[in-house]
Amino acid sequence: MNSPQTILLVDDHSLITTAMSALLKSMYPDVQVQIGADAKEARRLVAEHGDSADLMILDLGLPDCQGTELLVELLQDYPALKILVLSGSVEPEKILKALSAGAAGYVPKTLDAHLLKDAISLVLEGGVYIPAKILSQAQSEGMAPQVPVHNPKASVHLTNRQCQVLKLLSQGDSIKEICRTMNLSEGTIKTHVTAIYRAFNARNRTEALIAARKNCFNVD
């Protein structure tokens, strides 16, 4: 994808936001980093930039909202928004709960800067980032993120337009980028995205792409 234009960063520790802003600027010199310190400011940032932001980096340990409640709320209002969770916790249960709630990735605050850059790049490209050590531990304990139940006998039908949108979603394109590529209005693209999620019984981009692959749609 092209260099991101806007990244939302929400954490209540100024040292974290200062360091993260510097890191993001080193990766993408022209990016605009919009900063918030609590759930109220996160909601404001999403209301102002949710349709155009390329990524939100969200701390789950905000003083006025704990756990995945805010994550779920934001994704309900802006299902196409990519949210990378930043957290001090490395408990597999919390990580998998965040991913099941729709997070596009999970990074502990202790993660090495080089790996953090890799995580940000991967999520911006449409992937899902889970630290390898955490993923291995979760798999060994028999845990896995929840994904939509798939009935192999069922057939999912998408229009040609929706297939085009699905392909662009799989490439990590934002709603704005899809609008430009397809020369369609933002409202039209959002309608297609909503229809795609409904067709696959998905709550977010990640679940939709997983379900699409299971239904043999070519999204790679």
Protein architecture, described:
The protein is an alpha/beta fold and 220 residues long. The protein folds into 2 domains: 6-140, Response regulator (Rossmann fold, 3-Layer(aba) Sandwich); 160-214, Arc Repressor Mutant, subunit A (Orthogonal Bundle), CATH 1.10.10. It is 49% helix and 13% strand. It contains 10 helices and 7 strands. The longest helix has 14 residues, at 14-27. It is globular. Mean pLDDT is 82; it is low at 143-154.
Helix % is 40-55%
Q: H/E order of the elements? A: EHEHEEEHEHEHHHHHH
In the CATH hierarchy, the third-tier topology of the largest domain is known as Rossmann fold
Distance between the termini: 14 Å
Structural class: alpha/beta
Global morphology: globular
> Tell me, what is the CATH class of the largest domain?
Alpha Beta
Number of helices: 10
- Output the CATH homologous superfamily of the largest domain: Response regulator
> What percent of residues are in strands?
5-15%
CATH architecture of the largest domain: 3-Layer(aba) Sandwich
Radius of gyration: 17 Å
Low-confidence stretches: 143-154
Q: How many domain units?
A: 2
According to DSSP, the number of beta strands is 7
Order of neighbouring strands in the sheet with most strands = 2-1-3-6-7
Mean pLDDT across the residues is: 82
The main pleated sheet reads as: 5 strands, parallel
